[in-house]
């Protein structure tokens, strides 16, 4: 990717293993951050820096943003309440970093051409604000196109699970499915379209309503468990789910393996951190 190749890390090696590794990376970053507060030893600091660098090296903005949001939630709820009015410089820095990573991965000129930018020459570092604007508005156009696009066959789970289940299972369950996702994107390079896209493509408006109900019920259950028993396990599950809900305007992380498999790591490895 450093040489300008537009492939992602899922195009190399075993995609499922990549997803599991990144999910463990996110889970481990939460543990490290909590441990650093109680025991700021040098080796933990080095481990934490290494964890932060990995999504930057592989140019994964989704993983990097997920990591930042989860650590921010932990800091706010567990360590010290954040005065968000004083957080503006950090937000600006994150937006600039988001743009730099996007420019390095896609190329600024290519991004401006795709987004049909017609203004004056864009500053390389300030382009992050234009990236943010595109990400905030493009999914609304996609959802509008999707809802008004009435001529397509339902996927019956294919599109919801394509970023979660291993390829071998997808090929087994949907081997007879020959149709592809209908074209509703304003441009194929802009794929952000919120959590609503996949359930609507798979089961229509009723499926979307039911999936939204599941997310709401799961949120109530997780919050109730945390209020009932404030353990490390319940707290981290709450942090991951809160991050998923916060990002649902952009993408469905509940069925995105690198994010949602954190729940499994939290449950399976709880005896090592409780």
TrEMBL record:
Keywords: Membrane, Transmembrane, Transmembrane helix
Keyword Membrane: yes
Listed transmembrane segments: 12-34, 46-74, 86-104, 124-147, 200-223, 235-268
Keyword ATP-binding in annotation: no
Highest taxon of source: Bacteria
Annotated protein name in UniProt: Oligosaccharide repeat unit polymerase
